[in-house]
Amino acid sequence: MTTSTQATLLERLRDGRDAVAWDEFFTRYGPMIYGFACHRGCSPHTAEEIVQDVMLKVFRQRDVYRYDPDRGRFRDWLGTVVRNQVAEHRRRPANRVRGVGGESNAGALELADDEQGPDAAWEAAFENSLLLAILAAVRRESNARTYLAFELVGLQGLAGGEAARITGLSRNAVYKAHKRVLQRLIELGAPYRDGGRLSERIRQAIEDRPSAAAERSLTTRIQQTMHSREEPSQDEPAGY
In terms of residue numbers, what domain contains 25? Predict the structure, then answer.
């Protein structure tokens, strides 16, 4: 997603009646927020609640943040909102938060966060969402066999000959298709282009997405929430 595309979406969000814009916002950032909350040790149920609360917070504050690269990045503003919601939920006695050594790898990721700095996990999550948005755009505009060749070689690690057998392309055409898709990803602004890390980071971003069941649950919850949303009162604080 380019900077101009993001700015356009943010402007569209100011119209609370633009359901398509809010659907796009949730599709782009909802799974990222969910994954970040889980990485912070929240249970899946709590992570869903955090996504819901963040969506409502952004809806109520949609006139607060105005895109201006000189004044600060949108990802930093959103990160503050998300981290505040995670902290709020973790302070609630009724919410269980997995600690180090829990059922998932959340504990290990928490340790990694401490080593990398307080914002490293959020930066990684945001860039994952960017990668997935760009990947979806490239998939839509690519020939089906071209994209399949990229997916088989770049994301699944198949040899060129095996990818050629599956796609019906020649081995040379497979490698050209892989290179073409990678180049298009870079043109659209994909990070991690240096050192051959782009395919690796895309694989990681895909692995970090919520499960299909979790995404369905998230989608249902957000649809119900946003359909019943109400405008905030005039004295409601900005809260970030």
Answer: 3-118+211-227
On whether the CB atoms of residues 64 and 51 are closer than 8 A, the answer is no
The band of 25, judged by pLDDT with boundaries at 50, 70 and 90, is: confident
> Looking at the domain assignment, is residue 24 inside a domain?
yes
| Distance separating alpha carbons of residues 32 and 78, to the nearest angstrom | 11
Checking if the pLDDT of 65 tops 60, the result is no
Task: Give the CATH number of the domain where residue 61 resides.
Answer: 1.10.1740.10
Distance between CA atoms of residues 108 and 105, nearest Å: 5
Residue 101 has a pLDDT of 39
pTM, whole model, 2 decimals?
Answer: 0.68
In a domain, 236, yes or no: no
Q: What is the mean pLDDT of the chain?
A: 76
